[in-house]
Amino acid sequence: MKPLRICLVIVVLLSACAHRDIDYPIGFLGDPAPLNGATETIAIRPDTKWINVTGGDTVRFVVGEKSFAWTFNVARNVTAFDLRRVAPPGVLDHRVDAYVAPDPKYLGGDGDSRM
Questions:
Q1: Which residue in 16, 55, 111, 115 is a FRET match for 28, CA 20 to 30 A apart?
Q2: Which segment of the chain is annotated as a signal peptide (predicted)?
Q3: Distance between CA atoms of 70 and 88, rounded to whole angstroms?
Q4: For residues 99 and 83, is the Cβ–Cβ distance under 8 A?
Q5: E strand spans, the chain
């Protein structure tokens, strides 16, 4: 009976890790960046629900008259998070999910992460 219980605990823990609303520590989500360091710009409008970025990218986000930049040096297991968590206070007034593709410099020829 013990091995079955251990398997169930593992399944529950893995399911929890796959959930996108995990409150990862901010340090797992990347780092603030200077606006002039951005290599890409994404405009966020009131109807924007999600954005796609790639790990390692530095992106300038323009929200009306405000803007901020973020470098997506994310932890390997971070694939999505609410951008409001890293935006300066008062910049984003609605949820915008940031979907983060793996950083290509850590991908091998077979597509597996090497981190």
A1: 111
A2: 1-20
A3: 11
A4: no
A5: 31-33, 40-43, 50-54, 58-63, 66-71, 80-82, 97-101
Q: Which two tokens stand for residue 74?
A: 């994310």
Two structure tokens written together for 42? 């994404």
Q: Sign (positive/negative) of CA torsion 37, 41, 42, 43?
A: positive
Q: Which amino acid is at 95?
A: R
Domains of the chain (ranges, CATH numbers): 24-106 (2.60.40.2280)
pTM: 0.74
Cβ(68)–Cβ(87) below 8 Å = yes
**pLDDT tens, 3-39?**
666 655 555 544 444 445 678 888 999 999 999 999 9
20, 97 contact by CB (below 8 A): yes
Nearest to 34 by CA among 6, 60, 62: 60
Q: Answer positive or negative: Cα dihedral of 70, 76, 77, 80.
A: positive
Residue type at position 12 = V
